[in-house]
Amino acid sequence: xxxIGIIGSGHIGGNLARLFTAAGHDVLVSFSTDPAKLxxxxxxxxxxxxxxxxxxxxxxVVVLSVPWRVVDEAIExxxxxxxxxxxxxxxxxxxxxxxxxxxxxLDLGGQxxxxxxxxxxPGAIWVKAFNTLTAGFQASAAGRTGPDRVVMFYAxxxxxxxxxxxxxxxxAGFDPVRTGTLARTEVGHQEPKGDLYGxxxxxxxxxxxxxxxxxxxxxxxxxx
Length: 224
Description:
Blueprint: E1 3-7, H1 11-22, E2 26-30, H2 35-45, E3 48-50, H3 52-58, E4 61-64, H4 71-77, E5 88-91, E6 96-99, E7 102-105, H5 113-118, E8 125-129, H6 135-141, E9 151-156, H7 162-171, E10 175-180, H8 203-213
Parallel strand pairs: 1-2, 1-4, 2-3, 4-5, 5-8, 9-10
Antiparallel strand pairs: 6-7, 8-9
Helix pairs in contact: 1-2, 1-6
């Protein structure tokens, strides 16, 4: 059992609360503009409810699962960057926002979204995961067995965090496959417009795809 604090109670964060509590983890959910909705999520899943600062205090692992535009606010409510020092942070966010008056993928100047966020909290152990597939698909596909078991890609600069990331992905009902580090030529393939983003993969095909893509810039052929 792992103690997990989730900052973000929307589609992805709420779904992970369900999957992690079902797997026996000790979960606290936080960060909602609607306290009644947050309390309902906790009641439905068996998680506790609290503030982002309480999620950090509770969790050996902290899941950051908020809209891109409020990442800074979420970190501030969590207690600021220093509060996350030494914590493993699983970042599910994607860099969507207003681009020329339309909702689209933001240009981060050649950075990966994971590197961009990790730089805000330099003392944390950053892992990018649970960001490539919609919450609805994750909910419906979790727990498949055999050759139909769905892959969840992840990336981190910290090799020591890989085992924990894989354990949590497995307990949520997926096969973990690492894309590499937080460099854009590695994690970028699992982010918006990356070659692995928005597509269902199974283990052997996923491993082959990562081997083929690693070290090259994302082609932009993935789903936006």
